[in-house]
# Entry
Amino acid sequence: MLVFAFIRLSKITDDPAMMWFATLVAWRYSRFFVLLFYFWRYKPAGCPPDRKFGPNDVTIIIPTISVSSNSHFEECVATALVNTPAAVLIVTDTRESEVEIYRRLENISRGASVVQVMHVGVPNKREQMAHAFRALETTLAVCMDDHVFLSPRFLENVILPFEQTNKNGNPRIGLCGTKKSVRRYKSSSSSLWQRYWEDFWNVMGALYLTRHNFEIRATNAMDGGVFVVSGRAFVILSEIVKNSAFIKEFTNEEFFFNLFGPLAPDDDNFITRWVLQLPEQYQIKIQYTDDATIETTLGQYPKFLGQCLRWARTTYRSNLCALITELV
# Structure
């Protein structure tokens, strides 16, 4: 209605360009205030008196290919182990990387039989995740990137949405997303300009995730929907990702009328769409609490620019698929 009103006014005004600009501003901020209303209407899943799931019902999956250049890897795995999951599956690309992971984790995982390291032979995140999915033995699975850090009570809190059941007693939630924060990057450069430049991109990364948090919390409170559940860290029912049909489609996704593919990135977009289309009609929940918050590194120049490019490509690779092809 608002847009049609401005179209009508643009035909009778002396400055149509200004009218169209006013239309865009009105559309932008009307959407913002609607989302702001629902942002404050949001409620996280609470803890029932008789819980069915605990950390021992969860397997944590960490795909990685750049262990040698990842100075945060040990901390990432350590924060996962602090949450006492049933298992931690680390999947890498080559046998050499597998040996390197065992060497680097020798101190923190000593005596921890829950840590398993495996390789798939190719540097492909989807193939690595699929390999781990086949090995799942728990009811729930947490997938997280190798530069993500969990709070000590992360698992206790993030699996609460799966306590909700349908009339058959089965979990009503199939996929759960988290709140995200960016770790402050401390530059070691002696140049004032270089420190400013690095801090600038770190802030850009923080602003991106802040906007992401706002969007998913508001839309999830509005109608239970989200535009995507971030692949940085999410919880999913194991039965969904262990399914052979899922694994086949997940590792062979094509785009643009099946002319290009298979896709390696955009794994989180695929998983979100898949869950929404399942006949079980699983719902998606964002557990937006302090305990369910992950911390991650983001906004390091020039790596951040490459990430922005991949996000831009997602617009025509996956977003159009969701809106037009699969209608989710």
In short: DSSP finds eleven helices and nine strands in the chain.
